[in-house]
Amino acid sequence: MLVFEEKLSFMDRHGIDVSVVSTANPWLDFLPGPQAHTLASELNNDLEEYCATAPTVANHQIKRLYGFGLLPLVPEITTSALVEIVQQIGNLPHLRGLIMGTRGVGKGLDDEALDPVWAAIEKAGLVVFLHPHYGVDGKAWGDKDNGHVLPLALGFPFETTTAATRLILSGVFDKFPNLRLLLAHSGGALPALSSRLASCIDHDPVVASRLKHDARYYLGKLYLDAVAYGPEELGFASDVLSRAANFETGSSIKNAPNRTIGSKRMLFGTDHPFFPPLSSSEKWRSVTENLEAINDVQGWTEEDKDGVRGGNAIQLFNLGN
């Protein structure tokens, strides 16, 4: 049985009213298929109870805790078993999405065999939180002991960038246009490399023929967490998101970047319970630094900042119901 007092204590200390929580990697990736399927179902029910029994926000009917359900993304799992778990999550009222590792299952998240899973997710109206998973070979970081700095700072964003790009190239967003995908770590390098990606696609007719639109259009289909730790990074990402409509095939729109538009698809996150402070008297820097970054973005109005801090999540996860 999960206990929510510690989470609520963290939220109270940092002025957070509502959290959408998830399990952390490696999720169930280390288990055999049947066991992972059974445990996923049990954990989703536990998470539902954890959220359902949490208190409500003062003077509101909104619960303080909601959750991302868990999929058993293991090699032996069948597509029908995954669809079954998606349907379970969709029927649990306090689970508003599901978390997926960037590694995916089988040949990866861009495998056409997963199309029934994406269809089920879209039909259920669930948000997919795409999160990395130590997928870069440790040899890439060299022999010097740099702790977890390189995999966390560079490896995780690389995994997110690669997984999201593979989904774009596979045509998933053309086949399932109402799919809602939330990328960890502000989308990794995808915002910065989106024009380079579009150019590379244009020079490869086989790949280009798969897509209905310029690659930059699909960034407007994504949501990004705001865990970038700097206002310049957040501002740049919102610029890139805001121009996506310019790249819709047949569109005559050619708007200049508008950070207000881009901010609507960005959501505050905490990284909790990772990176705790060294002293129990200190607040978590993952909270304070990311809130400061949101507050300091040039070109965001107070309304934009309020949206990133919580208003966008209320809408995306339909937290009022």
TrEMBL record:
Transmembrane segments annotated in the record for this chain: none
InterPro entries linked to this entry: ACMSD, Amidohydro-rel, Metal_Hydrolase
SUPFAM superfamilies: Metallo-dependent hydrolases
Amidohydrolase-related domain residues: 75-319
Coiled-coil segments: none
Assigned keywords, A-Z: Decarboxylase, Lyase
Molecular-function GO terms, alphabetical: carboxy-lyase activity; hydrolase activity
Pfam family, any one: Amidohydro_2
GO cellular component, one term: cytosol
Similarity remark: Belongs to the metallo-dependent hydrolases superfamily.
Protein name: Amidohydrolase-related domain-containing protein
